[in-house]
Amino acid sequence: MTAGESHGPALVAILTGLPAGLRLDRDAIDDDLRRRREGYGRSPRQKLERDEVEVLAGLRHGVTLGSPLALVIHNKDHVNWEWGMSPWPPEGEPTGKGSSPVTLPRPGHADLAGTLKFGHEDVRNALERASARQTAIQVAAGAVAKRLLGEIGVTVAGTVLEIGGETSEDGWQRATDDARVDRDTLGGVVEVRAEGVPPGLGSYADKGDRLDARLAAALMGIQAVKGVEIGEGFALAGKRGSEAHDEIEPDRRRTTNRAGGIEGGTTNGEPVVARAAMKPLPTLMRPLRSVDLASGEPGEVLVERSDVQAVEALAVVAEAAVAWELARAATEKFGGDALVDFVGAHAAYLERIRWPSTR
Ligand code: EPS
Description:
By secondary structure, the protein is α+β, with helices and mostly antiparallel strands. It is built from ten helices and 14 strands. It has helices at residues 26-37, 45-48, 111-118, 124-130, 135-150, 169-181, 211-220, 233-236, 311-334, 339-352; strands spanning 2-3, 10-15, 53-57, 59-60, 63-64, 69-74, 155-163, 188-195, 225-230, 262-263, 266-267, 272-278, 289-291, 298-300. Strand 13 (289-291) and strand 14 form a beta hairpin. The radius of gyration is 22 Å and the shape is globular. The model has no long low-confidence stretch (mean pLDDT 97). Residues 6, 43, 45, 49, 131-133, 135-136, 223, 283, 305, 307 line the site of ligand EPS.
C-alpha cells in the first residue's frame, strides 16, 4: 500500500508479508531510485529531487523484523508548494505553486475522470495522486522484493526495447531531441526478465492466482502503461500451434521460451519475460485542447514543465512491479515468517522436484 501526492510532503509505503531476518541494503534501494530518476527525456523536476528512502518501522539494524516495513521518500519540491499542498488549512495569503485552482483537465491524464468521480472542483485534487511521481516509492518497495528474491537466486532486470518507435540507443536520443524541439512527447516499450525462477510460482487454480494475470495487473497499474504481454504475447495469436509452444526436453528444459516462463498461470522454470507498452506522456509543452470546467468555455492546457519521455524510468518501475509480484508468489509458496524457513522450503522443494538450483 502506498500513499503520497506528487507535490505533497512525502511518498510513503507500508510493505507487509516480508519475512523476518532479511538484511536490506540502503545503497541498493537508493541506487534503484537513482536509476528511475535518470533517463534522457526526464523533466527538470528530477534535478530537484534526491529520492533517498527513510525507514520508519519494521527494520532494526538493517534486518527486517517480520513486522510491516514503513518507507518514506520526502518530496524536496514540496517547499515550493507549502501553501498549495498543505495537508491542513494553510495560514496566510495564498502563495507559491498550487495556490490557484486548476480548472482545465489535461487530455490523457486522470484529470477529467478523477474530477467527476470524486466531485472535486480543483483538478489538482485528482492529478496530484494520479501522477507518476508515486512510482518512486514503488521502486523502493521493488528493491526490497529483489533483495528477498536474491535469497533464492532469482534476479529481475528491466530494459528498454523501444522509444518513440526506435529500437537503437542513437534512435532513442534522436527521437527524444526531435520531440523536445516540437514540444511533444513519446512513449515506448520495456521488457522485464526474471532469471532463476523455480517452476510452480502462481497457480492455475483460480483466475486471481494466475501469475500472468497478476503481472499484467501490476504492470498495467503503472501510470501511462496501455499494453502488457507475457512472452511472445500478441505475436502468438498469428502463429500455428506447432510454432507457438515450447517443447519439453528430457531434462524438462525448453529450447524456446515463447510462453515467457509461464504456462497455466504458473512458472515453468524458464525465465519469466513480460513487456509493457507506455503511451506518449499526456503532459505536452504544446497545449492540447480542453474545456474549462468552471466556465464551460473551450481552452488550452498550459504546462510549465514535463518529461519528453520516461521510458527508461518505466523499465525500472516495471522491474520493481514484477519483482514485487514474484516475491509475493514466492512467499505464498515458501512461507513468509522467517527468512531461514523461506530459504529452507525453497531448497527442499527443488530437491523434491529434482530441479538444479543453478538453472
Ligand atoms: C508527472 C509530472 C512531472 C514529472 C512527475 C510525473 O512532475 P512535475 O509536474 O512536478 O514536473 O516529473 O514525475 C516525477 C516527479 C517523478 O519523480 O517521476 C505526472 O504528472 O505524472
